[in-house]
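Design job #97: recover the sequence.
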């Protein structure tokens, strides 16, 4: 019997039940990633994907196994593989959000046609969504009770078992030549200079992710909660992309820490402080599982009536980090150059875009989808709806961040600003957050607003007022 292990965003070998279970069957195992350009995700995300697939392929080969990379129409590729290699079962790890749900639907249809089993595994969750319902048997809509409930039963989280060492069953069938190389569109992307620059910031792959996680857990947990909001400090784990790509999982990180808590190597309070943050990812996945429409529609339906400003030049200045508001521009440039942005700054740029600049939250989400290496359907949509004020557990839409106050609070010395906006580096710690209010100093330092750095594209006080007026209007409509 031949079993196919279909990979989506579980780009690892160890602790992968879909693979482990296939290896326990007698017979051959084909492990395959299917790349269909119709289900393309964002560019930066795809660059990470390409690099991670190459690394995974090498990891398989090093362990005597094989990974197939199948390019083309997903449905017909799957169809052909099932027929040609007499596949009797497909194992996969369930994923939420698009394009995964659509592909899982196609896989189901193809399997039904061939009358073979399609076996899901829920390894990417701490708990299956059905196990995390509230007392009314409904999904949690607020994070704190979700977390409380999850922490109460965290000792019921089942560990993932290590994948057996012998992967030879995955090499029983020789990989056809056309499935032995990275799909052309991914290779082309990886060859782009911008992609190489972004990827130079990262080490990709399962082993690399674990090395990074171990180092973070050993050295940064103690100060995590105190420092995580300060973008100039390397206080957070930078594991969002490896977690999105399943190079490691929430479960394995949890058990890694649990073992060390139990043997006294790790302080439980510090470890659980970070674990709580990891659970946001679980919460986001559960939300999208229960409410798939969130990917395009606001949870608070009245928000769909909001009148947005459609001007493309506004969006472009925000995208390029040319708004004239330093903390926003620093964040947008960090994103462009590295493929990530600090969490606090993500909140600020999203707030400015949706509230002061009155641009649709979906436009911001799409830009993040295309430029983040960690772009994740569940986390991204939850983040944008939360900031825009139209999601579950949302900050009320009349509350908006003042980017200058936030910048002064979380980057008081302007270190983050100086890193990403070298043209403002000479300004004092006070002036760098709002150069337009320090004309004299700018002049003395040879910085002319409108030349080296733009004038602010929006008046923060006035646009705040206008946002509140739009919100009032929205209340009257409903
Ligand atoms: P750490 O602080 O070390 O946290 C560890 C892990 O917990 C993260 O890697 C992530 O997997 C998870 N996590 C932490 N905070 C959150 C959160 N607020 N929501 C969900 N999961 C969280 N995260 C993504 O992974 N992909 C996205 O596409 C994404 N889009 C976002 C969009 C907006 C508008 C906002 C406000 C937030 C978004 N986030 C997204 C959440 C968060 O900004 C990142 O997960 C975080 O910055 C990653 O840094 P880290 O790995 O150092 O996190």
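Job complete. Output follows.
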């Amino acid at each position: 019997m031949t079993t196919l292990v279909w990979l989506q965003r579980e780009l690892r070998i160890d602790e992968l039940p879909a693979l482990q279970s296939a290896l326990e069957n007698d017979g051959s195992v084909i492990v395959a990633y299917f790349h269909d350009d119709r289900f393309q995700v964002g560019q930066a995300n795809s660059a990470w994907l390409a690099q991670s697939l190459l690394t995974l392929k090498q990891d398989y080969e090093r362990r005597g196994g094989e990974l197939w990379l199948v390019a083309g129409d997903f449905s017909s590729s799957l169809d052909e593989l099932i027929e040609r290699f007499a596949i009797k079962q497909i194992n996969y790890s369930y994923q939420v959000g698009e394009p995964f749900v659509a592909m899982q639907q196609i896989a189901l249809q193809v399997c039904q046609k061939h009358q073979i089993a399609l076996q899901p595994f829920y390894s990417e969750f701490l708990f299956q969504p059905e196990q995390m319902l509230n007392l009314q048997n409904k999904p949690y809509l607020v994070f704190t009770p979700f977390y409380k409930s999850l922490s109460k039963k965290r000792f019921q989280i089942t560990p993932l078992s290590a994948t057996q060492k012998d992967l030879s069953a995955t090499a029983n069938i020789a990989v056809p030549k056309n499935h032995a190389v990275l799909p052309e569109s991914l290779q082309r992307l990886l060859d782009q200079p911008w992609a190489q620059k972004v990827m130079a910031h990262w080490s990709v792959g399962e082993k690399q992710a674990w090395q990074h996680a171990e180092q973070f857990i050993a050295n940064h947990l103690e100060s995590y909660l105190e420092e995580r909001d300060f973008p100039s400090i390397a206080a957070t784990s930078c594991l969002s992309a490896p977690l999105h790509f399943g190079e490691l999982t929430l479960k394995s990180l949890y058990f890694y820490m649990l073992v060390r808590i139990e043997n006294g190597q790790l302080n439980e309070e510090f470890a659980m402080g970070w674990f709580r943050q990891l659970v946001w990812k679980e919460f986001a996945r559960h939300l999208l599982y229960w409410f798939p429409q969130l990917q395009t529609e606001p949870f608070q339906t009245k928000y769909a009536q909001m009148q947005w400003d459609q001007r493309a030049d506004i969006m472009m200045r925000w995208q390029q980090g040319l708004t004239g508001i330093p903390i926003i521009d620093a964040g947008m440039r960090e994103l462009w150059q590295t493929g990530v942005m600090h969490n606090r700054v993500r909140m600020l740029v999203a707030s400015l875009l949706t509230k002061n600049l009155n641009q649709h939250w979906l436009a911001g989400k799409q830009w993040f989808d295309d430029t983040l290496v960690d772009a994740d359907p569940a986390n991204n949509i939850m983040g944008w709806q939360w900031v825009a004020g139209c999601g579950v557990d949302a900050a009320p839409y009349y509350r908006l961040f003042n980017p200058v106050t936030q910048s002064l609070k979380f980057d008081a010395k302007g270190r983050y600003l100086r890193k990403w906006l070298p043209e403002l580096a000479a300004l004092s710690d006070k002036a760098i957050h709002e150069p337009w209010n320090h004309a004299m100093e700018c002049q003395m330092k040879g910085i002319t607003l409108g030349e080296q750095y733009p004038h602010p594209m929006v008046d923060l006080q006035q646009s705040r007022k206008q946002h509140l007026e739009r919100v009032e209007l929205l209340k009257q409509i409903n």
